[in-house]
């Protein structure tokens, strides 16, 4: 009996794009189901109950979560062609290191670019370009990150290309001028059908992000207690945040609140603002003795890349 494969994702998500590319490399057919992250499907909640995030690959009814883990799973199951992971243990460790660098360092720098203001733009740009240059250095003269063939680090990084135009607009920079060798690598990857057919259009991505930014800015003007009501709970205490406005990093008018929702958890809004607070070591006016940030209270699909 043929394998049944369902991919839960969104068209814009670079994490979903990784999975699409890996499946295309293997020549495997699948059904793509577009998720609405503001109203997640019962199937998504059932198959990724811990993170409740896309992508999820459901193979003959069995779910696999986390994009890089899915790519590795695909490589193991469909091992007849286009190996994505090196067999040599040291090369494998290196590949995992660089894929992780893309996930952590580059994604974090890219988020800063997306939320930067005129004051923070220069730092955000330098950090972001700095990460791209590190990757460019790792690429060196090789055609692909792993060497002669397209592999997991290429799969991890190339979906970010769809966001290059948006990054350039938000940080007022030219990626091709800063990292020409990386752009040569991009064009080499784009010659592969598995990549060119699956990467979302840069302008469509830019429009969508601009729309989200506008929505986010209007959301941040809301009163904190309305947020509690929205989630069917009323806050017991509201902690005001003492982060200076010039360190809010682009989230103008952010309310910057923490809500104690009759549990030991502090609930904050909006998610990108929370990330900025955490990174900046923000102080709170009346800090709770201990608190946990529970990301599951958030609808954090804004600026999530
Ligand atoms: N580390 C995860 C990240 C996936 C991720 O951030 N997915 C976002 C969309 S791009 C999502 O599902 N956001 C909704 C949420 O977190 O509630 C992976 O690599 O799969």
From TrEMBL:
- Enzyme class name: transferase
**GO BP terms, alphabetized:** glutathione metabolic process
Instruction: Extract one GO molecular function annotation from the record.
Output: glutathione transferase activity
Which stretches make up the GST N-terminal domain? 3-82
Q: Which residues form the GST C-terminal domain?
A: 88-216
Which transformation does this protein catalyse, written as a reaction?
Answer: RX + glutathione = an S-substituted glutathione + a halide anion + H(+)
Give the EC number(s) under which this enzyme is classified: 2.5.1.18
Keywords in alphabetical order, please.
Transferase
One GO CC term on file: cytoplasm
Q: What is this protein called?
A: glutathione transferase
State the organism named in the record.
Answer: Camellia sinensis var. sinensis (China tea)
